[in-house]
Amino acid sequence: MKPLLLFIQDENACKNWLSVCTNDCSLIENLQQLADIKDEQCKHYLLFIQINDSVTVNSIISLAQKGFGVVALSNTPNDAEGIKLFQNGIRGYANTFAAKPRIEQIISTVKADSVWLGPSIMQAMFTSLMRNQLPNDGWKELLTDREIETTDLVLETKSNRQIAEALGITERTVKAHLRNVFEKLEVTDRLSLVLKIKNWS
């Protein structure tokens, strides 16, 4: 399991994140500590870092390019910033002041080698990806009719709740369909599913 590094300069937010982290979490006091980590070792860490006056989006992108698994934290998240960060290799983008249950979800998601983005940014990315290109339907051959219906609604940026309402099933059943889709198409999350379908050949 990759150790977590936290560089959060808001004291209350830092306490919140630390209260959720387990024993494999270390607090970083300054950016020099990150610079001291050898390049070949960076890939072994997950870094949660707060954007502020001294930590710019570009400096976070540089850390991701160095090899860290980076989750950027913003006091005021916005779609454009999140998309730019994701396009440059970050693993997640979240609100610095997220509630503890959400922090737990974020940490467990990135630890499982999946990407964490908030719902509005995920929707903006899906829309951007699907706007100008119709996917090849070859992927449908691997799925059941119900799994195809579920996936088509994911491609329309519908939430699990909206999919459940549209198909007249429970959210639990939607999650089961998506687990099967992820397994059959060999992806780990909605974003990688959309990317795979968009680039299907």
TrEMBL record:
Entry-linked PROSITE patterns: HTH_LUXR_2 (PS50043)
HTH luxR-type domain sequence ranges: 136-201
SUPFAM superfamilies from the UniProt entry: C-terminal effector domain of the bipartite response regulators
Record keywords: DNA-binding
Coiled-coil residues: none
Annotated protein name in UniProt: Response regulator transcription factor
Cross-referenced Pfam families: GerE
Keyword Nucleotide-binding: no
Protein origin, superkingdom: Bacteria
